[in-house]
Every structure is written in structure tokens, then in C-alpha cells.
Amino acid sequence: MTKKIISILLVTVMTAAALSGCGGTDKGGSGTVTTAAASAETAETTAAELRPDLPDTKFDGADFGIFYSNNAEYGGTKNDFFAEELNGELINDARFDRNRIIEEAFDIKLFTEDLPGTSATAATTKMRTMVMSGDDTFDLMLSCGYTTCDLAADGLLYDLYEIPWLELSNPWWDQKANEHLTVMGHMFYTTGDISTADNEATYCIMFNKNMFEDYQLDNPYDLVSGGVWTIDKWIEMITGVAEDLDGNGKFDSNDRYGAMLWDDTMMGVVNATGEKCCTVNSDGEIELTLYSDKTVSIIEKYFSVALDKSQTYTYQRYNWDDKLLGSMFKNNQSLFILQLLQMVPKLRDMEADFGIIPYWKADEKQDEYYNTVGSWHSVFMAVPLVQKDVERTGMVAELFAFEGMNLLTPAYYDLTLKTKAARDEESSEMLDIIFRTRVFDLGWYYAIGGYNEQVMNLLRQFKSDFTSMYNTYENKALDRIKQLNENFAEIGK
Hints:
CATH superfamily of the largest domain: Periplasmic binding protein-like II
CATH architecture of the largest domain: 3-Layer(aba) Sandwich
Strand order of the largest sheet: 8-5-9-4-10
Shape: globular
Number of domains: 2
Oligomer: single chain
CATH class of the largest domain: Alpha Beta
Largest sheet: 5 strands, mixed
Number of helices: 18
Helix content: 40-55%
Radius of gyration: 23 Å
CATH topology of the largest domain: D-Maltodextrin-Binding Protein, domain 2
């Protein structure tokens, strides 16, 4: 997109916004810090005390379009806004009820369009083409980090802080996301109770309780609660568990392992230290922070077992389908699984009990656990730059998030995960910790220096030289960061 086209669109849209009225929001965002993990009781209490300050405005049955695309592994798109009718399924019915509330509140008619499957590139292309052509079909979009970041970098998304009636300091918006995703005082995408897809994109560790009893291992819940759940403890637990069950002299899917590893664990390992690939510094600029003593140390420790095929099973090197992962875990063939929370409901029919815990600390001195929101699987809300009525979009998005806190989040978190998939009260407590300590890493989302793929390639190729890899792509990363900072610095001038 040329600078001339961007300038014309910016002037047109900003002028329309200025003429349409007031609203606005505080860029500081100092509201109560909550996450999608807020319990149903907390949501109900908060809702009674705090409601969005929105006008009683009707839009005469106007269409309101939501474009939805996410990288859903193994096909399909998780659309948080589509529900044709009540069917007794908790999440569906929560969506249906929320949609009716929104439509009646503003007298609008919602419609959604999915771009299913592995669609980051396709979604980016579609939205870029629409904005450049002045197509205002979609008022709101939810798409993966790669898509939203590409569009933001090209100047094709609204700064959410500038949208009337969108109050991002409210507790139905994720304050960690707002903090981590704001650059140069601008934020082009975020998440919160408007969606549950970000929950499913959150990293976690699952453990097989039967195997823990068989090997007489320490209770991981106690370790987490005591602040002593570390990577050293994890390595100690998985060492010696692996066994060649079929006696064929090689380790394959028929055998037992200390842990089953997913390629993307590499990003979670980095963030587990509290470090990020990229951080927003005190000047509001993106800064490369991937390489540090903590990062080098934890990756070395991780590789001591992750690259040992007789200890762990990097299942995607042999079968990409997570059905293999699930079946091996159900068959007591792995002590741990490192994956996403989206995996948890797929284990509901597992006879052996399992639990859920956060990623470990680098050491006991670390102040907190840190759990990544995955780049490929992430879903963020954004507002395309071309709008029919940006004020209306702000109102609708705000009420969507508020009612999501009342309806969608409790259905997903308290009723679906806590009572259906999670097997015990302790796992529910662990979910609270996981959601409270989430990390949104711009370095992964903007694919800075290609490090998001390169750290995974070390695991994929069973290579251990992190330092050499980092040095190879450092200049590329710094060039990209310089360009992004310059782009964002120009916005609003």
C-alpha cells in the first residue's frame, strides 16, 4: 500500500470519526487487572458494580460484520460469534445469548464470515485488499497474531485507543495484553472476554497422574503452589521414565517417554524465564531482548532432555496429528505433555487421571510463572481502518466484551474447563495461575528476525547451538524492529 493511499484513508476515516462524536478512552489503562480466568462469581460481582458507559443508541437494523480467521490446527475455525440456535451446548448457548443481547441493545443484525483452516496469509491478503479498496463490509475482525501484526505494520488497523466508546481499562479487556501490546502509545489489537480463543492458545503442561503414582514422584501441584516448580525439577522427574516397551531396540510411538514435546514449546521455554523475544521499553519502542544469560541457561537445560530421543518424544517429527499425542498420553506412554490448553478438552475420555500445571520457572528465585499465548494460534480483536461508523463499532465491541465476561467466559472457563475437562480442584487453581501469568510477546507475533521459526528449528533439527542461530539473524531482527518503530512513530503526526 502506498503512503498516499494510507494518508487518504487515514484522513477520511479520522475525519469521519471526529465528526461522529465523542467517547474516547484513556491511553494509560489503569483499570483492575483481570484475565479471561475470572471466575463466574467474580464476573457476576464485577458486572453488578461496573457496566460499560454506552449511549442508548439504535441503528435501525443495520448489518454489523465480523471477520473471523484463526490458525486452527487440524482444520476448522473457532468462531466466538457464530451460533445459529440454542442447542444445549454451553459455549454455543452462551454465544447465542450474547449475540441476541447485542442485536437487541443496538438494533443491529450480526453476521460473520470465517476463513477456516491454516489461513494467516489468506486472511492478511483479504483484509489488506478490502481496506485498500475502501470496502467496509466488516466492522470488526478477530484473527491470529501474524495477521493482525502484518496489518498493523502496514497502517491498516485503527489504533484502539482512538476508538470512541472503547474503554480498554475496563476489566473485560485483558490488561496484560494491553500492557504488552502497546507500542509508541498505540495499540492495534488486543483480547479479553470478547473471545475465548486466546485461552485455548495459552501454553500449559499436562501430567499423567497414574504414572506419577507409579514412579512415586512429588505432587506437582504442591511444587507449583510452593513456588518451587522449576525446569530442574521437571528434568529430574522425566529422567529415567522412558522405556522401550516393545523391545525392538529403538524408541518410537510404541514406547514410553518422560515427556511429549510440541515444536512451539521453544517459545514457551524462552518466555518461562520472564524474558521475551522482544519487549516494549520505557520509551515505548520495541526492543530485541531474546538473548540473555537466563535464556541461554534455560534452553541449554531444556535441550539436555528435549534433544535426547531416549528421554522425550518430539511427536511432530513423526506424526503431525495430535490424535497420536492424545492416544499415547491416554495409554500411559508419557509422564508429561507440553502443549496448548486447546488440547485439554480432547482428553476428556481419558481413563487415567491427568492434571494441568503452568510452565516451570527457570529457578526458585524467579518471582512468577510465565505462560505464553502462542503466536500461530493466538486470536486478537482488531478494527479495520475503513469503517461505516467507527463510533458504532466501539460501542458494539465494548458491549461484546462486557457480555462475554458475563456469559462466554464463565461458560468456557468455569463450566467447560473446570468441571468437564480438568479432573480436580487443583487443576482449576492451576488454570487461574496460568491465565494470570500470561505473556504476549511481540517478537513472536511480528516474527522479528524469523526467530519464532528459528528457535523451533533448533528442536526440529535436533541442534543445540542457540547462540550461533541468534547471531545469524540478529541484524535482520534489528532492521525489522527499526522499521516498525519508525512506522509507529509516524502514526498521529
